[in-house]
Amino acid sequence: MKDKNVISRRSAITGMGAIIATAAMPSAIAGELRNDLYAGPDPQEDPTTKYPRPPFKNQRQPWPGLASKMEPQPDHGEKSYKGSGRLKGRKALITGGDSGMGRAAAIAYAREGADVAINYYPTEEEDAREVIRLIKAEGRKAIAIPGDLRDEAFCTKLVEEAVKGLGGLDIVVNNAARQQTQKSILDITTEDFDATMKTNIYAPFWIIKAALPHLKPGASIIGTSSEQAYDPSGDLYDYAQTKAATTNYIKSLAKQLGPKGIRVNGVAPGPIWTPLQVSGGATPEKLQSFGGQTPLGRPGQPVELASIYVQLAANDASYSNGQIYGASGGSGNP
Ligand code: NAD
Ligand code: MG
């Protein structure tokens, strides 16, 4: 009964169902609900001015870059993301969990009640430490597993360590990626091409294979794709095709694992202000006007995608399988 009230309250607060739900409730609960609904203003935020707009300062970091050294600093929801128990008791592994979308998802998952393991490249320890601190601040388990995803043995070990540290696994977010801009296909070496394929395509393959024996009905696999899957840029020849592959594996696996009760979905960001872009992902010229071409006139911030990662893992998205959810500021697909 208690659980039922919690669910009724949440759906009532978030939607038009509020009035109908209130009418059907005992007056004490309805009163509390009204207090929630009208307790202080939740002002509308103008999405065009909510976050920094270009032009941005010229900046370049060695790969893979640190969020802590970006100007302006990205917003991963450190101060703003509020949870409501949507992932209580869940156990999540997030690759690239130190910065960008991965960090935003890690913070949000912890605030929704999940224990979280993050993987990152060893040189990202500084960013990772901050994420670990934020997860622990929520009273959740936080496991840091640095290592190179281009290595199959490491990917297998990563899953084993996450399972051991968390005491199980039910959310896997394959989010890490390599993106290096190159004007010409002639400038992409076989080593470059291989590194992009290994990070973006092989690693999720290895990780999902290792994770699958641990996943039970209700588990969720999420991949980070991109608008590049649909409309590739000329200077992202190798990266863009890995994102098309990501969207494709999500749709294939959703069919394969759906009957087992495991959902597989993806997120397709547009231009988002993350270290990936300042450490070789974009040219300096592109970076200065980054996001300016979108209808909102600015890049997205990682936190603006956090609720999508939550939604795709949560029980209430139980009919979302094989879907790609976009957040691209008004242009691009899906
Ligand atoms: P980010 O730099 O914050 O995250 C990428 C992470 O990948 C790094 O933090 C790093 O930990 C990890 N990584 C890369 N190579 C690795 C390796 N060999 N071993 C271990 N870890 C490795 O940038 P982000 O933009 O948040 O990227 C997250 C996801 O979002 C990626 O899949 C990216 O393709 C996707 N994406 C980003 C944008 C954007 O504009 N930023 C747009 C569309 C899609
Ligand atoms: Mg990083």
TrEMBL record:
Family per record: Belongs to the short-chain dehydrogenases/reductases (SDR) family.
Gene3D superfamilies: NAD(P)-binding Rossmann-like Domain
Signal sequence coordinates: none
UniProt GO MF annotations: oxidoreductase activity, acting on CH-OH group of donors
Keywords linked to the UniProt accession: Oxidoreductase
Native source organism of the sequence: Flavobacterium album
PROSITE patterns linked: ADH_SHORT (PS00061), TAT (PS51318)
Positions with biased composition (Basic and acidic residues): 72-81
Region Disordered: start-end pairs: 35-88
Protein origin, superkingdom: Bacteria
Keyword Oxidoreductase: yes
Coiled coil, from the record: none
Name of the protein: Uncharacterized oxidoreductase YghA
InterPro entries: NAD(P)-bd_dom_sf, Sc_DH/Rdtase_CS, SDR_fam, TAT_signal
Presence of keyword Oxidoreductase: yes
